[in-house]
Design goal:
Layout lengths: L1 E5 L3 H12 L3 E5 L3 H8 L10 H10 L3 E4 L2 H5 L4 E4 L14 H13 L4 E5 L7 H15 L6 E5 L9 H6 L4 E4 L3 H11 L9 E4 L1 H32 L3 H9 L20 H14 L5 H13 L2 H9 L8 E5 L14 H11 L3 E5 L4 H8 L4 E2 L12 E4 L11 H7 L4 E4 L6 H6 L3 E3 L5
Parallel strand pairs: 1-2, 1-4, 2-3, 4-5, 5-6, 7-8, 9-10, 9-12, 10-11, 12-13, 13-14
């Protein structure tokens, strides 16, 4: 089976590579010729555990290739995935310009039947817009070539995307005819041998499912953050509360970890987009709007604790930051709470030294020389008045606190992810601040 994947960002590159791993012949397409050149030279533009070696293996076996010519990729393919970016547009709605541009190019390139699959996260109704753009191009060419549409939203967690794709909990596919369902079922069959289901549904429902899933997860995060803030005020411990409610099978423990707010390329954008979609149809999503508002507040919680501790006198205070990416196992800094905190501290005149195992290059593009980046976590703490942990990378969980005490100017730790035990930290002579911890 031969397919094409348009877009070599996070979703497209993982999708194409994992299909190639199952034996499918995959051509990945991107109009960024420099990115294609790098991929052909074995340089992977994103950080994702296991991806680089998998790309190299499938390129060597000639199951995976890269091109900037969509027409070449479409030729002979049974399925083409649209996996380009949908950044926030005006008013928070998804910007579909890249998606529709690809659709136009597909319409001008088709010579045989194909299934066009929307993999990008798009608002409900987008597949019909894509269908119209493609058909308009075919009509303009007076071409009788037919095609079908499908919606196949991704549910990949950055840092665990390979595992998520190869062993999915479920695969959601929106179709409007049996022929398309049969083709998609054949393509995905190797990935459901573990008995997890392919959920076929109508296209609109599939499009909404992606947004609803991310909105639900964001809701859980904002909920537990608000309860943690209440614990801070009352003197309770959110870890006890979290375990108490998470042990209820109706609630469960996943995504009930308080922190400095959600970030990344999905949750902030998708929450805004589903709110906007509802507004365009005359409906207000009151709960989800509150989720977004709560998250905006949460991104300031650690800053407020730091500012209060230093009596709002942050000028020339040196703050060591551990973690720059929005979550562990990725170099993605989009909507990162750490970057947000650093920007606020810089405005107050603080001096920032930061370390991250993977995201320094990406953070450098955003922050430039306004902060100092270090090659290991302890360098970021030399002479620091305080340490702030913002991303819970595994190497941060059991640091050498004795070494930290020796090199830091001030013995204060702000734990933005609640990974340390407050009592143990205080026994070692540190002042400790977490989120919702006594």
């Amino acid at each position: 089976m031969k397919i094409a994947v348009v877009g070599t960002g996070y979703v497209g590159l993982v999708t194409g590579t994992c299909f190639a791993e199952s034996g499918v012949i995959v051509t990945c397409v991107d109009n960024d010729k420099e990115k294609i050149r790098l991929l052909k030279d074995d340089s992977v533009p994103i950080y994702e555990p296991g991806l680089e070696s998998m790309i190299r293996r499938n390129v060597e076996k000639k199951r995976l290739s890269f091109t900037s010519r969509l027409k070449d990729a479409v030729n002979g393919s049974e399925v083409i995935f649209i996996a380009v970016g949908t950044p926030p547009g005006d008013g928070g709605n998804a910007d579909l310009s890249h998606v529709l541009s690809v659709a136009k190019e597909i319409g001008s390139s088709l010579t045989d039947y194909i299934v066009v699959v929307t993999k990008s996260t798009v608002p409900a109704g987008t597949s019909e817009k894509i269908r119209k753009v493609i058909q308009d191009q075919l009509d303009e060419r007076k071409s009788k070539v037919s095609f079908d549409m499908a919606s196949n939203p991704e549910f990949l967690k950055e840092g665990a995307a390979i595992e998520d794709f190869l062993k999915p909990e479920r695969i959601v596919i929106g179709v409007d005819n049996e022929k398309t369902a049969g083709i998609m079922n054949r393509l995905y069959m190797p990935f459901v041998l573990n008995n997890h289901p392919i959920l076929f549904m109508d296209i609109l429902s599939a499009e909404i499912t992606k947004y609803a899933a991310n909105a639900m997860l964001a809701t859980r995060i904002s909920f537990i953050n608000e309860i943690a803030n209440l614990c801070d005020i009352l003197g309770a411990d959110i870890n006890h509360v979290r375990k108490g409610i998470g042990s209820d099978s109706r609630i469960g423990s996943k995504f009930l970890y308080p922190g400095s707010g959600y970030g990344g390329s999905c949750f902030p954008k998708d929450v805004k987009a589903i709110i906007k979609t509802a507004e365009e149809h005359g409906y207000e999503l009151k709960v989800i709007k509150a989720v977004e508002k709560a998250n905006e507040y949460q991104k300031n919680v650690i800053f407020n604790k730091v500012a209060k501790f230093f009596n709002n006198k942050l000028t020339r205070k040196t703050i060591g930051i551990w973690g720059l990416s929005f979550k562990p196992k990725t170099d993605d800094i989009r909507e990162s709470s750490s970057i947000y905190l650093i920007e606020r501290l810089l405005k107050e005149g603080a001096v920032i030294k930061a370390y991250d195992p993977a995201a320094i290059t990406e953070a450098g593009k955003r922050l430039g020389n306004r902060i100092s980046f270090t090659s290991n976590p302890y360098e970021a703490l030399k002479g620091a008045d305080a340490m702030v942990l913002m991303t819970e990378w595994s190497e941060f969980h059991l640091p050498d606190f004795k070494k930290m005490s020796d090199i830091m100017k001030g013995r204060v730790i702000f734990d933005g992810r609640n990974i340390y035990d407050p009592a143990n930290i205080r026994k070692m002579g540190f002042i400790y601040f977490g989120i919702g911890r006594k």
